[in-house]
Amino acid sequence: METKGLIKMKSTDRKLALKGVNPDLFDEFKSLRSSVKHNFQKDYNTYLRHMENDLVSDPSRFWSYFTNKSINSPDSLFCNNVRYNNDGDIANAFADYFSSVLSDCVGDLVKIENFTYDDVVLAISELKSSLTVSVDNIPSFIIKGCSEFLICTLYVLVTLSLRTKVFPEVWKQTKIIPVFKKGDAQNCKNYRPIAILSPFSKIFESIIHKKLYNQVQNLISTSQHGLIPKRSTATNLFCLTDKIISSFESGSQLDVIYTDFSKTFESIDF
């Protein structure tokens, strides 16, 4: 029997046993519980085996798994000369630190072009269908499934937000996952935040991104690979390898300079 079916049977037997319907159901419940644990391990091993077999064709699946396994909360945290040991205090310390390192807005730098109803339709269609939820507890697949009922309302909200330059407060709320970078794991400065945004916030962001990118794409160097559509560290290494091989073949000199900007995103003017 599949794991889901065993879980349902286990839950049913447990409820009936607690109600005293049949004392023998406790033994059946224990047996089903053991079967569920066995199936969980079996299913998990199958999942790992499939992920390993698909490593070449779908590497993102592996890296998503690796990232999730790498996320561990520290038992204690040192932040602003204060040590925190309670989970709630640690979470608040992370929140205070992450909010303190952002740069203030420098004002109006670009003009957002008028957008259309179709822009909202496109932004919703590009949402990834996911069960992950932010603080609003609304998964993106619900938004996509009910898009025909939400498009007009979202169009009005985004229009008002741009016109009044006021971003809805509820869309600013997000779940933050601290991800350890390197160094002392108990120092808050050695973590970067990963935000789980509301689907509505993602829709707004998608619309704005397209409008901004159309204005600045001609200003971006053709040699840039980071944060550019269809480019990545892989394409960067490919280009570098090509230049190295060409230099070897021609006998010319090639100098490579590596730089690393500390906390790059925290230094950007918004």
From TrEMBL:
GO biological process, one term: DNA biosynthetic process
Residue ranges constituting the Reverse transcriptase domain according to the UniProt record: 160-270
Signal peptide: none
PANTHER family xref list: ENDO_EXONUCLEASE_PHOSPHATASE DOMAIN-CONTAINING PROTEIN, REVERSE TRANSCRIPTASE DOMAIN-CONTAINING PROTEIN
Name recorded for this polypeptide: Reverse transcriptase domain-containing protein
Source organism of this protein record: Araneus ventricosus
